[in-house]
C-alpha cells in the first residue's frame, strides 16, 4: 500500500467540464501533473483553447480543448461525439460546468432560474447518461470508473448571496449524486460529489464585488472570514479529486464531501 499506488491516476483519461478557469482548471492541472490525459470543456472556445495550451505547457502531458455549451442536450451530444471520436473509454468524468445568477428576491427572473438549473443539473445528468458507454468501457471491479460532480456548500447551507437558483441547483446535484451512485455502483462506476467553499474563482469574485477580476480581488481579505483563515487552493481541490479518482477512493460511493475550510460545520 505505497502512496504512489494508492493515489496514482497515471495514464487515465479524464474529462473536466468547466475546465477553462476556476475550480475546473485547478482539477485539470492536478490531473495533468499526475500523469492523466485530460480533456477540458467550456462554453467559450478561445478561452478553453488557451487554457488547454497553457496547462499542457505548464504541467506537461496532453490537454485537449473541446468547447461545448452543456445547458442543453444538443451541446451535451456534441461534446460526447467529440470525446468518442478521440477515445474508446473514459476513466474520470468531472462535472464541474456551472453558472450562477444574482438578483434580489422580488426581482429574480425566470431566465435566471432556468439557465442555472439547465446548466447545473440537467447538463450533469445528460452528460453522465450519454457518456456511460465510455465510462463502462474503462471500468472494472478492481478499478471502477469515476464520476465527480461539483456541488457547493450553498446546496448545504443558506447562501450569503442573493443567488436563489444556485443553492437549490447544487442541492439537486448532491441528491442526483446519491441516486446515480446507487444505480451505477454495480456497473463499476463510482459517483461522488465535492461541495467547495470559497476559492479564488471568477464566480466568487463577482459575488464579493470585484466583477470577475480574479487577480484584482483581495483573496486574503475574503479568506479572513473563513474558519481556516484563507480561501481554498488548487492543492485542496485537486487533492480531493485525485483521491476520489484513485485506488484510495475506490470504496467511497455516493458521498458529498465538503472542501470548504470548515464553513459548513462552523
Q: What is the total tally of β strands?
A: 7
Continuous helix count: 10
Please give the largest β-sheet.
7 strands, parallel
CATH topology: Rossmann fold
Biggest β-sheet: strands ordered side by side in the sheet: 3-2-1-4-5-6-7
Strand content: 5-15%
How would you state the average pLDDT, rounded?
A: 96
CATH architecture: 3-Layer(aba) Sandwich
Q: Specify the structural class.
A: alpha/beta
User: What's the CATH H-level superfamily name?
Assistant: NAD(P)-binding Rossmann-like Domain
Shape: globular
> What is the radius of gyration computed over CA atoms, rounded to a whole number of angstroms?
17 Å
Assigned CATH class = Alpha Beta
Protein model, in words:
The chain is of the alpha/beta class and 266 residues long. The chain has a single domain (3-197, 232-259), classed as Rossmann fold (3-Layer(aba) Sandwich). 44% of the residues lie in helices and 13% in strands. The chain contains ten helices and seven strands. It has helices at 3-7, 22-33, 45-59, 73-86, 110-130, 132-138, 166-184, 202-207, 219-223, 234-245; strands at 13-17, 37-41, 63-65, 92-95, 145-150, 189-196, 256-259. A seven-stranded parallel beta sheet has the order 3-2-1-4-5-6-7, sandwiched between helices. Helix 2 packs parallel to helix 3 (45-59). The protein is globular and about 50 Å long. The protein starts with a helix and ends in a 7-residue tail after the last strand.
